[in-house]
Specification:
The protein has three helices and 15 strands. With 232 residues, it is of the alpha+beta class. It has one domain: Sandwich (Jelly Rolls), CATH 2.60.120.260. The chain has a 15-stranded mixed sheet that branches. The longest helix is centred in the N-terminal third of the chain and has 33 residues. The radius of gyration is 24 Å and the shape is globular. The chain starts with a helix and ends with a strand. The N terminus is likely disordered.
Length: 232
């Protein structure tokens, strides 16, 4: 009986020793799964730079990547490619084909949004092919008294750009944000989600910029600097 009890204790002991191995396997699987999750852009010193084609959205849907050699390609894009919206019509349409970008703020305060953009008119009026929809989710307030928080939280038209080269889209247009800058008061340590959806056909986007009110607006710096880092 003593021999049987001794064998039983040894078996239990060995089994117990193998339990951590099972936990380790689960941890490894979780780690591998995490690698498939897109990184979160991180603001640094009041500046956040994101290239439009580096969206978390895996299916671009009605957005098309435009590369060198394509007749629609416009030289000078920050990553030698840009996105063109191919849905709706050249005037407008409902929010379509949302692109998602997640970012984290370390320096709280007021930030302004600009998207480097081109309106590919092809002979159309200059006020066409020039806009998209934007909205941000997260814990923030409006940084512009002329733009209601509800307009910043929901799909709102953002327009601008240039017909002959790259320009900047930075003005909101809705009943609650009448031709006014897109400004947000973000909190330090918070994570936010920007969604850009198509509105007018042939609108092209290249780089997305959010910069703190302490930062001097410097287009060359915004264009030539590398993208903000991404973390898991």
């Amino acid at each position: 009986m003593k021999l049987i009890a001794l064998i039983f204790v040894c078996i239990v002991g060995v089994t117990g020793c193998t339990s951590p191995s099972s936990d380790s396997t689960n941890t490894t699987s979780h780690s591998q799964a995490d690698k498939t999750v897109p990184g979160i852009y991180t603001e640094s010193d009041g500046l956040l730079l994101m290239d439009a084609e580096h969206t978390e959205t895996t299916d671009l849907d009605l957005w098309e990547r435009v590369l060198p050699g394509d007749s629609r390609y416009l030289a000078g894009s920050t990553n030698d490619e840009h996105l063109e919206f191919t849905g709706n019509n050249i005037g407008s349409g409902d929010p379509n084909a949302p692109l998602v970008y997640t970012f984290r703020i370390s320096k709280g305060g007021t930030y302004q949004l600009f998207i480097r953009a081109r309106k590919r008119l092809e002979g159309a009026r200059k006020d066409l092919c020039n806009d998209c929809y934007v909205k941000i989710a997260g814990d923030f307030t409006s940084g512009n008294p002329k733009a209601a928080l509800s307009a910043l939280l929901t799909d709102t038209k953002l327009y601008g750009g240039d017909a002959d080269g790259w320009g900047w889209a930075g003005s909101l247009d809705s009943e609650e944000a009448d031709h006014t800058p897109a400004k947000y008061i973000f909190k330090a340590g918070e994570t936010y989600t920007l969604t850009i959806s198509g509105r007018s056909q042939r609108f092209n986007i290249d780089r997305i910029v959010l910069f703190h009110s302490d930062i001097t607006r410097d287009w060359d710096h915004f264009i030539n600097s590398p993208e903000s880092q991404r973390v898991q």
